[in-house]
């Protein structure tokens, strides 16, 4: 059984960890993300390069070349290039010459403002200014502009002074193979670019820039110089949108991230799409548009007849397109090193699911740095730190000596970059990450340059600053707290609170939890600075508003405040009172001014983890849950509220479908499946891991996004807690009431109350207390509790209001190791009041002893949930109100103490009497 397999994997992992070539893994807390640029300093940053002192030159898509000064920590504009900025084009690439400190040359890759072409231009940069007349056009690449995307723009240099440049395929997107040869459809035929040996698009080029601004072709590219129908600049062909190329300084191998197509499932027309992390040990053809991922082949689709044709052989691909100007016979197709779809990858589950945008990143070698202040630990030697823009992570890939993938793990998992678009190591040994921001519309607010520092010695304290109130009417007293502050090295800490406000001298408090009085109206900053015994400091600010009492919001429920019961009508009532504004009761606050919402969200959504109190969404909105879902997904990559981007604005969608009563279901399904053609040729990626229930939540917000007045539920009413028919029922209900008061001399304040009602189920394997030998166990993919005679488990603070019965579901099993036994339900202690008792017999879970035996068990439906085939035990319990500790005590008259009684999978609470 798989239990043995899992044990083998665990032992294998321990053996790998013990190998002499495996240095110990550093504690994640030794990596500290340091934000270098202020909010609003960057807008759509695309790429950057670094000077030895940590100064960064940053390319912004709209044309700005900016400088981050590592000494002053200020961002300035060096120049603004005139560029064409539609269809993803613009200023997309920048690289410093390897000898920049001597020749001051900087290379920029940008779209010409008026002519349909990209240019690689070299400038001389002196004293933060581009020297007039120094520009030299090194290379020009003609491109199409209408209905196309993908620009590339990544650059890297090898030790011989050769420049590698990634160039996008410059095509429209299609779910089938991008081989449309119909008249007028050449922009959807990547045989004209990526698979064309005589075209520079869809490639990674390798050239040697010369002092006079020209370039020569180094030996060793894909096609020897002079080969008919080829471009000698090509090093790698068959790419779709290669982004950040990096060279392994030890092997010379080339690595890059590759943005893949959008199909979310395999069909007869095309395989599903994959993003790729690629490795080239030499020049080659990487398959696009005939192959994707590990050489999954596309049928050559007949767009006129609308049917798929034959697939090509990756060993002997041919390009017979009418749009091809190069060779017919192509080099063998190279498979991707790592390929992953929208859904969870069976091969690489750690990469996650949802949208994808493989960026790439650097490979770490300690020998690449002369005298770094903070070198990374030896654990990362030779590992590739590669990012995904849409999934907000950086992954560390490990290889064996032959370049084969050996393993992967999240790098700095506590760091969640907002769309990492470029990353590289600086001379100081730190990893620098350029974050694009959550979306095009949010980029000007959220984009930033971050430096990740490794601290091998003393670490800065982790600071947690809190206040009991965010503000209040005068005189206002805030009780500040440093609770939760800690030092990972265990050092003694000193605390200092500094209170600053406009026109007032700072006040300093040197205790961790001071009470601070405010007598003048205004906005104040309370900054907590914590210093350890070795002098390392860290700070965190708080914003406090004096002169405006926050409103008081109460969300009252009749019934259970921890669980929802399916199809129950839940009575609720909201009350709001504000010192300055009045209250709902006196009608000075109108019901429509209060945001009240009830949302069902599918399994996996965590309201607390979503950071709802960090001003990511407008607090006074009925659609806070939807907006939070969007902030955690890739929605902002293509859409904004009012301005169209890659896709239509939400308000455009609302205007189109406002009167279409059936649109909600269609749009929810489309969010999950993806689609194209309604708003142009650009395809919307599929989101197959998003449930239909959550997709409907997004659609409700989108279709109301152009409503000027607040849409809200009544302040008092009854809400039916219905689980969507197409949902697994393991989600939660989020009930929320919020009110933002009126702004006076000081800013408005918002108060919200949120109640989360979860599925009425307890998981025994996750109990707060396990005693007497009860243990967590596993069989295949099922995790459960093995109950033993004389053992018990306990759950803290369970709301038993309206609970009338409990159902105990055993886990299926096929071993004769369980005897069966009794469950006693007790209140507040293992020996507390008895609420009820029930039996669980072997015939309820042992598939050999169930009625009909193993044949009947395997023949039952549904086959995908074996536990649905076991027989539960249900008992009525005595009515209890409020929260109590709940204990399940396992006994047997026949079994010996410690003997296994039954495998227990779940306990379901119900408001119905059996």
Radius of gyration based on Cα positions: 31 Å
Mean pLDDT value: 88
Poorly predicted regions are 1-20, 609-617
**Percent helix range:** under 10%
- Total beta strands: 55
CA distance, first residue to last residue: 37 Å
Using the 3D structure, state the CATH architecture of the domain at 564-758.
Orthogonal Bundle
Structural class, from helix and strand content?
Answer: mainly beta
Q: What is the makeup of the main sheet?
A: 6 strands, mixed
Q: Could you please say which CATH topology of the domain at 564-758 applies here?
A: Cytochrome Bc1 Complex, Chain D, domain 2
Strand content: 25-35%
What's the helix count? 9
- The CATH homologous superfamily of the domain at 564-758 is called Cytochrome c-like domain
The 3D shape can be described as globular
CATH class of the domain at 564-758: Mainly Alpha
Structure, described:
- The chain has 914 residues and is mostly beta strands.
- 8% of the residues lie in helices and 34% in strands.
- Strand 36 (522-532) and strand 37 form a beta hairpin.
- The radius of gyration is 31 Å and the shape is globular.
- Residues 1-20 and 609-617 have low confidence and may be disordered.
């Amino acid at each position: 059984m798989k239990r043995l397999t899992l044990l083998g994997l665990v032992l294998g992992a321990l053996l790998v960890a013990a190998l002499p070539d495996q240095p110990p893994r550093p504690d994640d807390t030794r990596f500290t993300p340091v934000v270098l640029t202020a909010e609003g300093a960057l807008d759509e940053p695309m790429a950057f390069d670094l000077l030895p002192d940590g100064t960064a030159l940053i390319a912004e898509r709209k044309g700005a070349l900016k400088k981050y000064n590592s000494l002053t920590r200020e961002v300035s504009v060096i120049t603004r290039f005139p560029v064409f900025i539609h269809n993803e084009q613009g200023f997309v690439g920048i690289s410093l010459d390897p000898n920049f400190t001597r020749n001051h040359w900087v290379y920029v890759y940008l779209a010409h403002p008026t002519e349909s072409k990209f240019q690689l231009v070299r400038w001389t940069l002196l004293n933060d200014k581009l020297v007039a007349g120094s520009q030299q056009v090194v290379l020009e690449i003609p491109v199409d502009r209408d209905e196309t995307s993908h620009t590339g723009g990544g650059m890297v240099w090898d030790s011989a002074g050769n420049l590698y440049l990634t160039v996008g395929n410059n095509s429209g997107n299609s779910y089938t193979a991008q081989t449309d040869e119909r008249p007028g459809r050449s922009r959807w035929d990547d045989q004209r670019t990526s698979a064309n040996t005589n075209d520079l698009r869809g490639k990674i080029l390798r050239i040697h820039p010369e002092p006079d601004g020209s370039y020569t072709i180094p030996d060793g590219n894909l096609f020897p110089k002079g080969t008919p129908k080829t471009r000698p600049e090509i090093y790698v062909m068959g790419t779709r949108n290669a982004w950040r190329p990096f060279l392994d300084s030890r092997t010379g191998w080339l690595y890059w991230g590759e943005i893949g197509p959008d199909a979310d499932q395999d069909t007869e027309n095309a395989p599903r799409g994959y993003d790729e992390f690629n490795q080239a040990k030499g020049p080659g053809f990487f398959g696009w548009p005939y192959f994707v991922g590990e050489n999954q082949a596309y049928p050559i689709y007949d767009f006129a007849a609308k049917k798929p044709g034959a697939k090509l052989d990756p060993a002997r691909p041919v390009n017979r397109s009418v749009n091809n100007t190069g060779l017919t016979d192509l080099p063998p197709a190279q498979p991707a090193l790592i390929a992953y779809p929208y859904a969870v990858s069976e091969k690489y589950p750690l990469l996650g699911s949802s949208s994808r945008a493989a960026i790439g990143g650097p490979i770490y070698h300690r020998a690449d740095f002369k005298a770094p202040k903070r070198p990374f630990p030896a654990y990362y030697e030779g590992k590739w730190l590669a990012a995904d823009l849409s999934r907000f992570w950086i992954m560390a890939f490990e290889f064996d000596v032959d370049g084969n993938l050996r393993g992967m793990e999240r790098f700095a998992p506590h760091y969640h970059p907002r769309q990492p678009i470029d990353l590289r190591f600086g001379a100081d040994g730190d990893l620098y990450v350029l974050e694009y921001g959550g979306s095009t519309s949010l980029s000007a607010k959220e984009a930033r340059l971050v430096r990740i520092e490794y601290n091998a010695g003393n670490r800065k304290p982790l600071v947690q600053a809190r206040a009991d109130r965010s503000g209040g009417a005068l005189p206002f007293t805030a009780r500040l707290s440093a609770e939760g502050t800690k030092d990972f090295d265990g050092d003694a800490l000193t605390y200092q609170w500094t209170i600053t406000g406009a026109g007032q001298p700072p006040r300093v408090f040197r205790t961790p939890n001071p009470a601070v009085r405010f007598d003048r109206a205004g906005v104040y900053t309370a900054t907590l600075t914590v210093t350890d015994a070795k002098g390392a400091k860290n700070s965190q600010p708080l914003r406090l508003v004096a002169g405006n009492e926050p409103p008081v919001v109460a969300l009252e429920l009749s019934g259970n405040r921890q669980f929802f019961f399916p199809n129950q009508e839940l009575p609720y009532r909201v009350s709001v009172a504000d010192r300055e504004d009045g209250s709902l009761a006196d009608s000075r606050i109108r019901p429509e001014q209060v945001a009240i919402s009830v949302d069902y969200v599918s399994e996996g959504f965590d309201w607390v983890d979503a950071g709802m109190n960090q001003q990511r969404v407008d607090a006074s909105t009925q659609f806070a849950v939807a907006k939070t879902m969007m902030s955690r997904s890739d929605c902002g990559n293509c859409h904004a509220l009012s301005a169209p981007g890659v896709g239509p604005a939400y308000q455009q969608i609302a205007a189109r479908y406002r009167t279409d009563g059936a649109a909600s279901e269609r749009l929810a399904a489309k969010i999950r499946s993806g689609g194209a053609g309604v708003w142009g040729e650009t395809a919307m990626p599929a989101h197959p891991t998003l449930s239909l229930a959550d997709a409907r939540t997004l659609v409700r917000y989108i279709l109301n996004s152009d409503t000027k007045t607040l849409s809200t539920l009544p302040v008092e009413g009854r809400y039916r807690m219905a689980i969507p028919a197409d949902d697994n029922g393991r989600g939660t209900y989020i009930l929320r009431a919020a009110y933002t008061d009126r702004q006076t001399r000081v800013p408005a304040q918002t108060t919200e109350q949120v109640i989360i009602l979860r599925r009425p189920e307890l998981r025994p394997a996750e109990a707060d207390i396990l005693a007497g030998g009860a243990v967590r166990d596993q069989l295949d993919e099922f995790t459960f509790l093995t109950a033993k005679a004389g053992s018990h488990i306990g759950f803290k603070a369970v709301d038993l209001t309206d609970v009338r019965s409990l159902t105990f579901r055993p886990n299926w099993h096929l071993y004769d190791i369980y005897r069966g036994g009794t469950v006693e339900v007790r209140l507040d202690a293992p020996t507390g009041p008895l609420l009820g008792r029930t039996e669980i017999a072997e015939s309820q879970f042992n598939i050999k002893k169930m009625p009909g035996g193993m044949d009947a068990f395997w023949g039952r439906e549904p086959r995908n949930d074996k536990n649905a085939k076991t027989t539960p035990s249900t008992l009525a319990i005595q009515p209890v109100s409020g929260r109590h500790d709940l204990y399940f005590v396992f006994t047997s008259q026949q079994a010996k103490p410690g003997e296994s009684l039954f495998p227990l999978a779940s306990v379901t609470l119900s408001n119905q009497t059996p």
